[in-house]
Amino acid sequence: MSLSKDQLNGLYTAIVTPLAADGAVDVEGLRRLVRFQLDAGAAGIVPIGGTGEYPAFSRAERRLIVETCVEAANGKPVIPGVLSTGFEDALEAGRDFAAAGAAAVMTVTPYYAPGTQDGMRAYFRRYRDALDLPVMLYQIPRRTTVAAFADTVQGMAEDGSIIGMKYSSYDMPDYIRTVKYCGDKIAILSGEEPLFATHVALGACGGVLASATVHPKIWIEIFELARQGKLNEALKLQDKIDPVIDAIYVETNPGPLKAYMAMAGLPVGGVRLPLLPPSSQTVAGLEKAAQHAKSVNLG
Predict the structure, then answer these.
(1) pLDDT tens digits, one per residue of 98-139
(2) Assigned domain for 105 exists
(3) Is 138 a catalytic residue?
(4) Residue 258: how many other CB atoms lie within 10 Å
(5) What single DSSP character describes residue 24?
C-alpha cells in the first residue's frame, strides 16, 4: 500500500508502544491498541514517532512494531516515524519499514548537524529518490531545534520529495505561510492538540495527535466540525479534553500519557530509559484529569 497526498486526510493517531512488565514490546497489546484506534474511526496509525519512543528501540524492535501495526491495521495506512539524526540511519529505517508494509514514512528534519535550508531540501530529495515509499516531513523544532521554512517546504513539495507534513509548532505566522505556499501541493497535518481545530480551519487536512491514542473519538468530532468551518463549536468541544492535554504534557511524552492510559482503563505498561515514570505531583494531576474525563464522558 502506498499513499498519495489526497489520502492523507483525517485523524492519524500517534500511538504509544505498549511494553510488557519486563520492558519488551507487548505485541498483543499493540495489536489491541491499533484495532481500538481504527474501530473508533481513525484514518491510520503513526507508530514509533516521539510518542512511540523511537530512540528507545533497536532496529529489530522498530521493524517488529511496524510489522505488527500493519498486520493489525488490515489495510489501513501505517506511517511510522523516522527520528534518526543522519541520512544513512534514516534510509536504513525507511527501507525496513517499507519491507514491513508501511504506506509511507514520517521523517524528521535532520538535526544535531542540520545544515542550511538548501541542505534540508537536498536531504529530503535524496531520501525520497533512495526510498521506494512516500515521505511525510515531520517538523517539530522544539525537539530538533531546527525547522524547514515555508519556502523550503514549498521547494520539497515541488521536488516531489514529500506528500505531506506533520506540523508540530506554535509558530502560527509560519504555519499560515506554509499553507499559503504549498497547501495545494501537499497534505498538511496538525501535530498540536491545542491548535488542532485552528490548524484545520486554516487548511490542515487532519492531524497526527498523541492524545488520540486514548481518546480518538473526540478528535474525530473536532476535526469534522473544524473542516466544516464551525471553529467555535470545535473549540467548545475541545474544552472537554483540554484538562487531559494539560496533564499529559507536564513531563516528557509519553510517560504521563502512558500513566493516564492505565487510569483510563487502557494499560500499556511503562516507558524506557531515559524516561521514568511520572512524578507523584504529575500523577496527582493525571488522576484529576482522568476523573474529569469520566465526568464529561470522553470515553
Answers:
(1) 999 999 999 999 998 888 999 999 999 999 999 989 999 999
(2) yes
(3) yes
(4) 27
(5) S
- Which amino acid belongs to residue 297? N
Residue 177 domain-assigned (yes or no): yes
Catalytic residue, chosen from 123, 127, 138, 175, is 138
3-state class (DSSP) for residue 90: helix
Report cis status (omega within 30 of 0) of the bond before 173: no
Give the bridge partners for 206, in sequence order: 10, 189
pTM: 0.96
Cell numbers standing for residue 227: 473542516
On whether residue 293 sits in a domain, the answer given is: no
| Residue 166 designated active-site | yes
Choosing from 166, 175, 240, 260, the catalytic residue is 166
The CATH code of the domain that includes 209 is: 3.20.20.70
Count structural domains, the chain: 1
What DSSP designation does 25 have?
A: B
- Domain carrying residue 35: 5-238
Is there a domain that residue 280 lies in? no
- The radius of gyration computed from the CA coordinates of the chain, to the nearest angstrom, equals 18
Q: What is the mean pLDDT of the chain?
A: 96
